[in-house]
Amino acid sequence: MKEIRKDPFTGHWVVFNSALRDKIFEFWKDRHYETPKIEKCSFCEGNESETPSETMAYRHSGTQSNKPGWWIRIFENKGAVLQPDEDLDRHPIGMYDVTTGFGIHEIIVETPKHLTQLEELPFGQVRDVLWAFKERISALKKDPRLKYVTIFKNFGLGTFGSMEHSHSQLLATPIIPRKIKDELMQSKDYYQDKERCLFCDVIKQESRMKERVIFETDNMIVISPFAALSPYEMFILPKKHNHLFEEINPPEANDLTDTVIIALKKLAKLLSVPPYTLTVHTAPNLINRPGYWSTIMFDFHWHIEISPRLYRMSGLEWGTGFFFNPILPEIAAEELKNTVI
Asked: Sorting pLDDT into bands at 50, 70 and 90, what band is 29?
């Protein structure tokens, strides 16, 4: 079966071709996730001197900063792509726009234990990881120079991650990333046309149709998006409208924790622990920006995207901007739904 679908969230086009399924899985099954042999991991407890000084940590009472005794630890990325000590300066070079390399790039170490993955951690630990995301986003949005805070997690081979110790990354930038801006524009246009939230409408329709719903809880729904950009992609959406992830409350955080654990365990069981990228999508920083994205509190809806990385983008994808997916979302949803963990 061949079909071309438009992603309502970004406006991107996705080509679905089930004939490519066997080729994708033939490629994937030949790749084996092997535990790397590391003599000393700088992310492990006891090796705090191997990293930059911590920005924030969840610690046991009486323990000292940059010493053992933590269960979540955050510090600047040694290989940071942007630097906080750069002066922010936007200027033209002829017709081109340039911004200096100011920004924040941090590592969020999710556990002191080596090679224990996020979904394998105790419930309270995963909840604290999500709460740390919330705290760092809130703190960095106090800086009016930073327009957006991205939190993402790369796991497994092919995601350019150099450390196998379970961790996420934070990148705060003076510009809004292209994909987020696409989502913001699509959401704004939809709201201006219909005076309703695009995401809320998707939740209502998917809940009614059921064919792309993987599972749901009291506060969250997990779907295989209509025009999934990657095979077995999952969106975690809060049922209650809110544009800000950082406004999540304790009961919602508890529910989200269960949801993330279940989603990642289903993915690991169905696809034999695939590489994936998990990304938190929240609204941009609106401090000191009157009138900027003026309807965003009504039209945008925070969510989490989990995208398996089963193959590399081809030249056709780079050349056209189309995405290619061999698995229809309805089939992916059914397989994930029926995966018992």
From this structure: low
